[in-house]
Amino acid sequence: MKVQVRGRNVEVTNALKEYVEKRLGKLVKYLDLIEEAQVTLTVEKDSHRVEVTIPINGIILRGEESTGDMYASIDLVVEKLEKQIERYKGRLYRRLGRQNTEVKAGDNKKEEDGPQIVRTKRFAMKPMSVDEAVMQMNLLGHSFFVFSNADTEKVNVVYRRKDGNYGLIEPEF
Q1: How far is CA 14 from CA 6, 24, 47, 140, in A?
Q2: What is the DSSP code (8-state) at residue 101?
Q3: What pTM value is reported for the model?
Q4: How far is CA 95 from CA 5, 99, 129, 132, in A?
């Protein structure tokens, strides 16, 4: 597995990089489809945060943990990813052969007045079912997910409600 490790406000030493590679390498025993992973290590005051993103055939596994120790954060994020893989393993294997989702950060634009758009994301929207969209939203750890509904061929939004259930927004013309 190819692991890219970046550091923000922290120097990524060889020992730290090797530890990350060793711990993430154990994820392959759960899911042999993993080819690459992006890891960002961040230090802010007493907080050591680790963010891991693993693209797998159009699905993105993502985990984030923050503690007072970088090595503990790495261990916790790997445990979180293991649980995600175990929970969704059957669904992940059924989705083989689909194209990858692309996410690109856009240009930052400044405005003098009011709130600003500080980030733009663009991604290829492949048709998927509502269940697949809910799974992808949960894997990303987001509270909503925009997708192209395979049944209606229209753009829909699935979101997590405060009561723990999910909502679906469909366009009406």
Answers
A1: 12, 15, 21, 28
A2: P
A3: 0.58
A4: 28, 10, 11, 9
pLDDT in tens, 90-135: 776 666 544 333 333 333 334 345 677 878 888 778 899 999 999 9
pLDDT at residue number 89: 73
Who's near 122: CB < 8 A, 6+ residues apart?
102, 103, 104, 106
Buried b (16+ CB within 10 A) or exposed e, 10-32: beeeeebbebbeebbeebeebbe
Q: Cβ of 119: how many Cβ atoms within 10 Å?
A: 9
Q: Name the residue type at position 10.
A: V
Angle at 23 between CA 22 and CA 29, to 5 degrees: 95
Spatial neighbors of 151 by CB under 8 A, at least 6 apart, are 129
In this structure, the dihedral spanned by the alpha carbons of residues 165, 102, 122 and 143, taken in order and rounded to 10 degrees, is: 20
